[in-house]
Amino acid sequence: MKPIINRRKFTGLALAASAGHGLPGFSRVFGATAPRELDKFGGWTGKQFKPTGFFRVEKDERWWLVTPEGNAFLSFGISHLESNLFKEAYNREAWQERLGVANADDWQTFAPALRSWFLEICRDYGFNTIGVHNSLQVVNRPVPAVPYMQPIHFIDIPLLTEEDCRERPDVIGGAQRPSRIGFPRRLRNLGPDAPGKRAYVETMSKVYRDRIADFNTTYGMRFKTFDALAAAADWRLQTQLSNANETRDNIEFLHAVVDQYYRTAKEAIRRYDRNHLFVGDKLNGNTDSLDTVLPVTSKHTDVVLYQMYARYEVQRPGLDRWAKLAAQPLINGDAAFTMITDTMPRPYGPVADNLRQRAEWTLRNRNEERITMTRYLTAIIVVLVAGNALWTTTSAAESENRPESKPDVAESIAARLGRGIVLDVSSPEEHSPVKMPYEPEQLDAIRVAGFQSVRFYVVVRRDPATYKAMIDDALSRQLAVMISMWGDGGWAASPKEGLAEFVRAWDNYAMFYKDHSQELVLDLWNEPAGLLLKDGKPVGIKDDKTAMEYLNAAIPVIRKTNPNRILGIGSPGLNGCLELEQFVTPEHLTYKLEDGSGFKNDDGLIGLFHMYHPHAFTHWTQKLDALPRWKEEVREQLSHPVAWSKRWRKPVILDYHLQLIGGQLQSLLRRHEAARIDSMLIGNELHSMATNPEYQLRWEKLIAGIRPLFSGRLGYNAGGLIGPWESSQEYLNVSFIDSLDFIGISAYPRLPKELDADADDYLAGWRKSPYGEDLVAQLTAFIADQGKEVYLTELGSPANKGGIEYFNPGKPMSYDLEQHAAFYEVSLDVLAGVEKLQGVYIYNWHANAGGKPGFHPETNPGAYVWNVFGKPAQNAIRREFLK
């Protein structure tokens, strides 16, 4: 009977096992004897498959490498044994002494000595595979002693995304790397006879559905046909990274190129070798390469070979995604922890402060890699860098005095949070009158749009279990999650009671979620000074010292149950930029944990700030062109969190701001197209952004980018028919209206002059509003002037006396359901007579509230006043539509 061994134990034994054929099975470093049940290639005979005479992969419960003799194999490899690295000016003498050779340039003595030393290292550290970037002429002579990867070089440029191509100051060798040119830029600029150029034109013709005008809009060109594009050489030498359409086009073409390259390379190899594993290129997991090209490359490869410099918890979200994308085993072919030395001033990846810390990380990561290998991987290849792994020109004392490095886990999660979105909805148990209810499909749309994280608000007095379903749904979709605590307005009057409640709440939340994924981040306090709005002004803890007392009391409580949890910390006030630099410091964050550490030593902190600058623009009181120094204001504000991050060596993210989304919107369209949606509004009541001519070209480019992805009609929903103010005339001034198929109007007309109005008053108000407007004439003239379809995409009125003219949400409601019904009955009757008005959509906020628990004018006025469900207005609307 074969011995029984679990996967994790096998992984541990494999890491400590012999380095293959001819090497003793003992690891002095890890102190473990290799199991006797290993074949000559290092495969475990306790797990057997069909022998084929070659290495291959097979999956039962998990993926395995299988040795030529048919035994299970997990690879723990090493890379970068490159002979020239051992003969640099700074390390030549040390290596000559170490290897016992007189001259490193004497190949006859140097190569065998280097090989002997290398095989000893493999034995001591348990390496059993030779990865890429190795001098095989050294390690394989006279005969191979360890299973190895054989590189085959076909082309002079790798598979590079724009992120990979950019200039980098932090590379393995420590020198700056200039920017490079990838496939899309290189091939699109060739002449008409080049096959690559013809392929590019063919791809663009498909993307733009043979509409050269839409292509020209994206690139600002004047090609008359796609043939003219084919004939143009050097027409676009650079990529405009802010142009979302161009980025999409480059990715589409990169997919086509990669597919052709892999197919051709594999066919060439298989023509002569039908047996060995084909792993393709080593794709970069620290950039967007894997997510971009893996769906294409995995169609051709046997294994996913990638490179990623990070600890397991940082790699894990990517591994989750890539394992689903490829359905293949993964090999991390290049991984290491680096440190700064005189010869490597700008290393890549997680940077240790000194050799001691580097050794601790390596040993700690070894255990994590065992877990990784039991879940996804069949191999891990670590980097051996001569002159740094074993010899250093930096003294231990110098290294110990360096400031702490930024923790790679916090950095990685911060990067994902920085590509996130706020989902401000009510949980299934809350039934909030002022928020849309949560639905899992919202997360699907967020994921499809390309976001990597989502932010939920949690209410201080709610049971933590209230939000578990939302959080788990997001995590299951590979989204990082930040939950932000929303305090109680009563704390402003009773700050001491509020402090106790704040600490108690975080104790409950921390305990409840302590075993959740590290992808769950806790944002301690959203805007302490803005706990609620009263008379249009924020109310909360205005005293900065008091706000910091809350944070100092809560953090130690959280750390008792969540010592490694990432915490987001913003400043007092409204989490402003300047305040982050002023208050999130050791002088104000004075908490101490049980081990005596505090803010400086806490590697699990991320700085958070909110951006409301320029305030007049972000809060819709002025157009951007009326603020000539807005760029300087933004730069000055952002300088504070940047300075904070540099000083305290902690990540920082902007976790609340407003922006127009382009590339994310395009990603959603594929979902819309598949669902056979006929029409789509690309924006809603954006006011100055829609009317300012400064943004017209951006809107037109956005629309041109949408057209190839969405065959339905495109429209925009503009404010209008509300009153004589400029903001209510948005529909008359949409700068990009000519690019749309239809226009929608949000109409909340102010009709009666009197509080106690009847149907006749509402009817008269359409012809002469309290401000003297003839709304019917305005709408009729607009439709005639546009010559395109017009809809009232929102028509609404609150259920109070006098309608919206007398609506004041800050005061008790005076309901009049008969007036509410009269508004809809009269308005729909009037609008039915407006020639060429295509349709009307009733505003029913929110649609899911009607009939739910708590749907009552006293307990839920916000939901009740705008909802038509169960009111006379519902029957009035039904009667009008039946006409």
From TrEMBL:
Q: Which residues form a coiled coil?
A: none
GO terms classed as biological process = polysaccharide catabolic process
Q: What keyword terms does UniProt attach to this protein?
A: Glycosidase, Hydrolase
Q: Which InterPro entries match?
A: GH, GH113, Glyco_hydro_5, TAT_signal
Supply the EC number(s): 3.2.1.4
Task: Show where the Glycoside hydrolase family domain sits.
Answer: 465-637
Q: What GO MF annotations does this protein's record show?
A: cellulase activity
Transmembrane ranges, per UniProt, are none
Q: Give the top-level enzyme category.
A: hydrolase
- RNA-binding as a keyword of this entry, yes or no, is no
The protein here is known as Endoglucanase H
